[in-house]
Design a protein that fits this description.
five-stranded antiparallel beta sheet, about 180 residues, alpha+beta, two-stranded antiparallel sheet
């Protein structure tokens, strides 16, 4: 099933998400459907709040960057109940977009490396360090389960300049090639 993507202005994008247990109903199907939705929307990450579910689940698929970065050719991961507990002092800018903010792209400064605990779709525990493009995508999706969007990381001046565009998104004035709600 392809889910419609929740667009900026929806309250679910501003709520801190809830942890889930291994017996969450139809978790495998939900994860499969999220990957299908992500592929359909041509994105590299998708968090459960973006499909209207207030749970701490997000997926990352860096395979579109695999041609230029062979180490990412098969990079697909599921993150459940994630907690970033360490961030590097070194930061970098990267031009980010978001399926929930169609048409909007901005340079966002984030730590270059992170360390986090999470469980995968089989509820196997992980404690890993991430860097490069995966760290960037993971942090972006992690923000979603924390009730934040990438524009929250911009300077107040830049956010003010985007106010009109954000208002248009919230009012349903946008165009994109994937299903939305």
């Amino acid at each position: 099933m392809i889910y419609p993507i929740v667009i900026y202005g929806s309250p679910v994008l501003r709520q801190k998400s809830e942890n889930i247990a291994a017996d969450y109903p139809d978790l495998k199907k939900l994860v499969d459907d999220m990957f299908a939705t992500l592929t359909d929307a041509e994105g590299v990450g998708l968090a459960a709040p973006q499909i209207g579910k207030n749970i701490r689940l997000f997926i990352v698929d860096c395979t579109p960057w695999g041609e230029d970065n062979p180490e990412l050719a098969d990079y697909k991961k599921v993150f459940i109940n994630a907690e970033i507990y360490e961030r590097s002092a070194d930061t970098g800018l990267f031009n980010e977009g978001c399926l929930s903010l169609p048409g909007l792209h901005e340079n966002v400064r984030r730590p270059l490396k992170i360390r986090m605990r999470y469980v995968d779709e089989n509820f196997v525990e992980h404690d890993e360090e991430f860097d490069g493009l995966p760290a960037r995508v993971i942090q972006h999706e992690y923000d979603h389960i924390e009730g934040e969007v990438f524009t929250d990381r911009l300077s107040p001046l830049r956010r003010n300049l985007l106010k009109g565009k954000l208002l248009n998104l919230a009012k349903g004035r946008y165009r994109c090639s994937y299903k939305t709600k």
